Amino acid sequence: MRRLRIGVIGAGTIAQSAHLPAIRRLADELELVAIADVRAEVAADAARRFGAEAWYVDYRELIARPDIDLVDICTPEFLHCEQAVAAAEAGKHVLCEKPMASTLQEADAMIAAARRNGVKLMIGHSRRFTRRYQEVARLIREGAVGAVRLVRENERRPRAMYGGLELQVSHWAPEGGRPWLASAAYSQGAALTNAVHETDLARWFTGSEALSIYAAARVTEPGGEVPDFLTYVVTFASGAIAAAEIVNQLPAGYPYYHMLEVVGTDGMIRATDPPMSPMEIWRADGMAYPLNFSHLLHVDDAYLQEIAAFARCVREDSEPPLDPWDARQALALSIAAVRSSQLGQPVTLAAVEAEGKGLQGA
Amino acid sequence: MRELTVGLIGRGDALDSLAHAARYRPGIRLAGRVDPGAPLPDADRLICAGSSSSERAAVVALALAAGRRIAMPPLLALDDEARRALASGSIVQVSPLVGYAPLREVAQRVRRGEIGRPYGLFALHHLPRDAAADLDARLADLLHYVLEVLESPVVRVYARRSALFGEQDDTWHAILHLADETLVTLEVAACLPAGWPEPERLLVEVTGSDAVLRAEPTRQAVHATKRDGSTRAVPWWPDPSAGYLEAALARLEQTDPPSELRYLEVLSALLSAATEQQAVRLADTGA
């Protein structure tokens, strides 16, 4: 079996903590050819450590290589459209990190480019590839709880979440100061950064399209620019309700924690992280949970499964296991959450779509 | 020293539990227990155990008519009689949830400033599906508790009341915006299916700059799994009636109880928001 040749665009936090290690473990199927990152030292270091033969500062040089079959885009969402469209035009299959894009127009352009060029496009909604969520989806599909009526998924992340990962690289700071994730110029905050997972899961589990959302968001980080705290209630066409509270600013030392409850007409599923970690250290200055992140049920082998599944569909010329339309709809719901929190009123998905059409026409 | 006499109002299990708590509480003597609507017992202190909306409404009229002061769970009515009863101090509201020691602890620690700057409060109360008739009463209990925990004025609310599992409304979702930017998320749902091992689920999480407080008082249970695989949870958490009794007695002792109109304004806004399916501003009310 010929190994597929892959290039990775963006060598920041998610690439080095999740994608590149997974690609290394898939060495029987994938050959890492090149890495691109706007930070030369980051690109060079990642190429050396993960065994890529080349590195670039300009991603266009990477996609110009004729010997690359697929690219894995691990850059911030505001770059996804440009890079995914360019890769598709160059005939590369595209796996792209979530959220799909910054706007629905960009998401639609990505889908159109993939169709036009006959390449596969999949957005890496990693939770679709974890055992926990797959098991929940399987139970729902098999009718274990009847029709889904209520989905509650809360997510708490400690402020220093990435501190425990021994990352080789910090978040990219386009202007040298504030990381892009925390900058209003580049990020819309928790609604897209994390909650696009929750909006995707809610659609998946309810099997329905969202009609409207009410969301409230706030900035808790002193001097922060983008919301890091979000709470919302979504109404679906099926009549189901999904709700979430996302907190990204737990005091340091608190464990990462997810609470998922799916209530159906005939039963209920709970798939919640234990409130504590599998390992706890009690000290005079507080508690620590050193294995918390790596042992969370949502992390699992998600990235390995995600990348392997995409490679399989490229090799077998089959449909990607996650349709880009699903990612686009999760993005629509997250964007609606942003709008609602700005307006202070519920927002319909129809209004968000109309707003997008207005922008296209402008 | 003469024992304090206590008269109880209510019916059913709630009244039985409260009577049990009163019987074994040193310093008081149970003077009588009556149904809501019956003549009030002759006692130094009157406490209502009413868990349903109708029981609570009946007690308001009694308190006003008799000119007595009664401690009871939060009101659900928004009419003039209710406002008069609260404004005059005839009705002193006590959320039954303060009967749970972990929830009292959370409230005290937040008020002492232990969490630093509050970010948010998440509270969930899941009940069996056949408890949908008491949905509004459970929301009122939770709302009253939350407003005691967080003192900042409520400036905007959103609420949604849904019938997810039957014909009758069985679920409340509410989001409260406080003046200090704290976001409160409430979920009250009669959603636990038949056969679910727990009789109810109560969870309160308060997140702040310095600490996170998490209380789940109904988690304390013996789980028994039968040969057929079915599991039942037999609760062994302390009966909250004793804590409720203490809180009610303490509240009745207060000569200048805090205004309960804030609670009434927020409840009124939640009901409006749910009806209109829009967020409702309270900024002008100072609630």
UniProtKB/TrEMBL annotation, chain A:
A GO molecular function held by the record: oxidoreductase activity
Presence of keyword Oxidoreductase: yes
InterPro entries given in the database record: Gfo/Idh/MocA-like_OxRdtase_N (IPR000683), Gfo/Idh/MocA_oxidrdct_glycsds (IPR050463), GFO_IDH_MocA-like_dom (IPR055170), NAD(P)-bd_dom_sf (IPR036291)
Residue intervals of the GFO/IDH/MocA-like oxidoreductase domain: 133-270
UniProt keyword annotations, A-Z: Oxidoreductase
Signal peptide location: none
Domain of life: Bacteria
Domain Gfo/Idh/MocA-like oxidoreductase N-terminal: 4-125
UniProt-recorded name of the protein: Gfo/Idh/MocA family oxidoreductase
Organism, scientific name: Thermalbibacter longus
Automatic annotation (TrEMBL), chain B:
Superkingdom, natural source: Bacteria
Species lineage: Bacteria, Pseudomonadati, Thermomicrobiota, Thermomicrobia, Thermomicrobiales
The name this protein goes by in its record: Uncharacterized protein
Protein species of origin: Thermalbibacter longus
